[in-house]
Each structure stands twice: as C-alpha cells, then as structure tokens.
pectinesterase
Amino acid sequence: RITSSWLGTGRHYLGRAWNKYATVVYYQVNMSSIVVPQGWAPWYAGSETNDVMFAEVGCTGAGSDMGRRVPWEKHLSETEVEKLVDMSFIDDGWLSKQP
Ligand SMILES: *[C@@H]1O[C@H](CO)[C@@H](O)[C@H](O)[C@H]1NC(C)=O
C-alpha cells in the first residue's frame, strides 16, 4: 500500500523513466489518492517511450484508476505477468545458495 506518510507530501508519480528501457510493474498494490492521474512521467526518456515498460496489474484503491494514465503505459498479457511474478524471474538458483 502506498501512503503519503512515508513518501512526503503532495501527489506522486508511480515512476519516471531514467532512460528508454526503464521497467516498473506494480502488481496487486493498494494505491492511495496521492498517485497523479497520469501515473507515469517520461523524464529522461522524453518522447522515446516505446521501449519503456511501465505497467500496473490488479491494483486497487483510490489511486489505481487507469482511465487517465499516459497512453504509453504498457498493458501486459497474462503470460507476461506470469513470467514477471514467478520467483524464477529473480531467482535462477542464487537465493537458495545464500547462508
Ligand atoms: C486499500 O486501502 C484502503 C485505505 O487504507 C482501505 O480502506 C481498503 O480496504 C484497501 N483495499 C484493499 C483491497 O486492501
């Protein structure tokens, strides 16, 4: 859940692109009303937003309305989402080798 108590005051973007390959996915997050309606900022990616992968999947709350999001927000297929939320996406075996 995103709250204003630990992010400061005012409204916030979900993310801004450092470059055109920036990737952020919010998955099943309860978003409060501090999220700006556009959701995302292109920042250094400028107009090169084709390769930016910003997405939201299954989010709830007052800030989760995707009706006014930037047009370049990605809409992931079920297969893409399954790949991203599967532990194998971040763990190719290194996790179980930790002390
Ligand atoms: C989201 O957060 C609000 C505010 O705390 C709460 O009232 C609501 O029940 C939460 N929704 C879900 C789906 O957790």
The chain has one helix and four strands. Residues 1, 30, 60-61 surround 2-acetamido-2-deoxy-beta-D-glucopyranose (CB under 6 Å). The first helix runs from residue 78 to 85. The two ends are 30 Å apart (CA to CA).
